[in-house]
Amino acid sequence: MNKSNSVRRFSPPKQQQQHLNDSTTAMIWIQKPPVAVRSLQSTTQEISLLKLIFDGFSILLVFSPWLIFKYLVKPIRRSFLCSDLNLYHPKPIKAAVPTWLLAIYAVVLPVIIILCSEGVRWYYLVSKRAAPMIYKIQICSTIYNISQWIGNLYISLVVFACAHGVNSFLTNVGKVSVGRLRPHFIPSCFDKFDYTDFCIDPNRWISNYTCIGESSTVLKEKDGAYDIRQSFPSGHASTAFCGLMFLALYIHKVWRYRNIGLFAYVLEMNCFAFAAYISITRVTDHRHHPTDVLSGAILGSVIAIIAFRYMIKSFKQSILSQFGDEQRNEAVGNDNML
């Protein structure tokens, strides 16, 4: 009897029991939100044939004037003071970074890294069975499917090539229109190495002059005579910063979601260090004035940033669609801040 009374005494009322059951059910429902299931269906992106035609025409449009300004347009003949000691530097014997090595650092190396990076990312997506991006292009009545790896490579390399073409074009426009004399101008132009042998009146401006080699029939000597009047801006500096800054931005944007720690940032710093080293050697080799190198570095960096932003807008969906919603929103926000 006492036992049943004790049980009855501590049993909750039926209404209170129902309330506790409803609260427990609601709490359990809140603690277990629905999990979004990611679809493995591929995403398609159509590419117009007209776009490919205009891409090729744009590259041709930026490289053709560069060749014209480089080899056919003569730089202006700029007056100078014979007392300007900045023009008496000795002739350069050997470049610390020759043109072929510059091409490897600023063109070949970025292309190889972009190729390997896109290949590794494609392999990662295939191994994870993530939803791929398929590019579709219609030629006449036939539709061709292009894999994500080929499509992203096309966008990256075409934008990279166009950036180098625009950079070379603007660099050579500055060279022939400004006509700044190189630091070794007087020894190379007049074969005079001493100030007292060449300069009679220190205050006299020299405007009418003809450099050694201008009348030569040898193309190399003739080009060299014109080249000593094309100091501004530095072509090595603009090319180095255009190619390597583009590569640094690519690494920062594409590699930062990978589990590689500080390796990506070390590569970015090395890109900037290589570009700075190449630019500094142009001053130490007596081929450019410091302001020439600074202007070339600014020009190349600005073109690289503009080209990279265009590339990101062209294929950022195919890059960011492989990550979660939180990372995608963060990446898009950072892209807007770039």
Characterize the biggest β-sheet: 3 strands, mixed
Taking Cα atoms only, what radius of gyration do you get, to the nearest Å? 32 Å
Mean pLDDT: 78
Give the N-terminus to C-terminus distance in angstroms. Answer: 80 Å
Please provide a written account of the structure.
By secondary structure, this protein is mainly alpha-helical. It has one domain (43-337). 64% of the residues lie in helices and 6% in strands. Helix 3 (49-71) packs parallel to helix 5, helix 5 runs antiparallel to helix 9 and helix 5 packs antiparallel against helix 11. It is found in: Membrane. This is Phosphatidic acid phosphatase type 2/haloperoxidase domain-containing protein. It is a multi-pass membrane protein.
Properties at a glance:
single chain, mainly alpha, 3-stranded mixed beta sheet, two-stranded antiparallel ribbon, 5 strands, transmembrane, Phosphatidic acid phosphatase type 2/haloperoxidase domain-containing protein, PAP-like, PAP2/HPO, PAP2/HPO_sf
